[in-house]
Amino acid sequence: MKQKAKLLKTKGTYEENRTLVKYLFYALLILLFYPPFFRGLFFQKELMPTHILTAILFFVYFFAIERKRTGNTYTKFEIAFFLLVLMYGIASFIAVNKNLAIQETLKYIHYLLIIFLTKGLINNREKLIKLLITLITAGILVIFIGIGSALETFHYKGAFEGGMMNSTFQYHNAFGAYCLAVLFLAYMVYSDLEGKLRYAIGASTFLFMLGFVLSYSRGAWVLFPPVAFIYYLFVPIKYKKGFIALFIGNIAGLAAVINKFNAVLTATDKSVGWLWMIIGMTVSTMICLLVEKAQKKVKLNEKIYNLIIPIGTLMVPIVGLLAKDKILSFLPADIGQRIQSISFGAETVTERTVFYKDAFAIIRDYPILGTGGGGWSTLYRMYQSYGYNSTQAHNYYLQLWIEIGTLGMAVFGILILIYIYNTYRAYKIFEEPSDKAKITAMFVSVISILLHSTIDFDLSLAAMAIFVWGLVGAQLGMERNIREKDGKFKNFIVYGTLGMTVFFLFMSIMSYMAFDAANQGIKLVQDNQPELGMKKFKQAVRFAPFEPTYAADYANLANVIGKKKQDQQLIEESARYIDMSVKRGKYNYEILINASRFYASNGFIEKALETIDSLEKYHPLDSSTYGMKTHFYLKIAEKYAKDGKIKDSLTCLEKVIAVEKKIDELNEKIRKKVQMNNMVRFVETTPKTQENINKAKELMQNLKSQ
């Protein structure tokens, strides 16, 4: 007999703790609402407090609600995600960068807790709709911040740069993918609601479409047709009609104002842009309502919606290609040029191909368990084909593979397959059209970001990951009464998750305290209180022992104070801390430069030279590496010459002069490895490097002539 289901309304514990559950639910909505507004939670300053809040909310939820449930089990998806977190934890023990590996592990514990919370607290249609409206409302505010920054009504750093809208994510491609994901939630919710809120949601779809276009994200643009096709194909007839009306309205609204709005962005007085935005929203809404009215009057056979229109849309790309020039002529020139530049031969595509090639080189050296979190940003300069700067691999899956190896990637692959299967099964089993529409919209929203992550680093922004895994958790909540019950791993998951959460909360608090202590130390030094500042830096090291910059800051300040006070014990301690910073951050350019200067100024010549050689080893295609190398070796050669150590001085000078040939060899390798375009950077012999080489030649000639 075929299983049928509706969204479950949980009883028992929820009835007994209704007030607490309500407060927990609204706390969860807040936790899912605000992440986009703080630079996408990409930086530790904003991320750490969110870690702490999530851990506290989970503890309250678990001890007040979850542990009192009877017969509660965990899905295969949750088990797979739990194993994914374990893979990050295991990789941390062998990580190339312990600090970043721990921080990345904390992020994935955070996502696991978000999945548990949304699954546990989103237990009926009303709550699910409130969740979706919360995410849409957050999206509307993100769009307004982007538009307001573009029109210079207010300033939000990085929200609009280079003619591209980044909004709060500060990166236009992530913003474009976000607009795409929220747009389809809004399309569905519009058809699910009645009354004034319905029209507000409908009007918001124009804003999402405007932000989507002004993001200039070619990857997101390319994704729109296939994800729109999937959405339309699987939503019930009522939602198909709503999508058609809204989409036609959105296109009409854009057609009416896009040229005018785009022109305003380069005008002196940009305030009129708000008027064009309102006109666009109005046109979009009116056309949508007219289309809906026509749909009610003209009763088309459902086959037209379910079969003819989908087949017809498959012809749209062909028509678009044939009429490309005509269509592009109606668009602003820069948008048209951006569309025309979409090809596999585009420079950004070529650049990403190089990233991916270099990523595979790292994977080959760390195949099983990976490098630990932060592996790409730590190692990529050793493997890069030319001297680009990119702390992200621009492919989430390759970056994941680098960090947790082939075993971890297999776990993630299984996790995604489980998610797709769960979505398919729920869609087949749900009877209510609104349930089918909800699960389709959520799936399309999630999959649009997952697909876009094949060419970018959307999920490196914690706000995007929280959005995605929050929706996945909500889907698990929808499916709670149809999923297969499997209690085999219940105790393992329960106690394992509690242990992870304790670790998560402790490390998050310690990291935040370290960050705060370091900032206080900087302020105290600026206020001419260096000894108090030194104590704060030492606190930061205690709170975050794997963060090399805190140890380096303490060492530098302690060394200065120690010399000033002639405190030999403090000077020796500063040397131990600089050693610690090098040990924890041996791949870090700034750490190596700082340590080289420290060692040289404190008479540790051999250590200074070893550290500079490490700089060349780990940053071989950075032009400034050779400026620093020639500078240090020249200074030490001059000191040796002054001290009468002629042989040692000549050895150092040979190293300086050899840089000239080294740079030529590196550039020749680049020419052979990389397809030439404007983005390829060669190693430069900077004026300072050349000056150092010339001085070395002159000094060598003088020494040899003596």
Automatic annotation (TrEMBL):
Keywords: Coiled coil, Membrane, Transmembrane, Transmembrane helix. Signal peptide: none annotated. It comes from the Bacteria. One of its GO terms (cellular component) is membrane. The keyword Ligase does not apply. Residues 656-706 form a coiled coil. InterPro entries: O-antigen_ligase-rel_domated, TPR-like_helical_dom_sf, WaaL-like. The chain crosses the membrane at residues 20-42, 48-65, 77-96, 108-124, 131-151, 171-190, 197-214, 220-235, 242-261, 273-292, 304-323, 396-421, 442-472, 492-515. It is a multi-pass membrane protein. It is found in: Membrane. Its main location: membrane. Residues 204-412 form the O-antigen ligase-related domain. It holds the Pfam family Wzy_C. This is O-antigen ligase-related domain-containing protein.
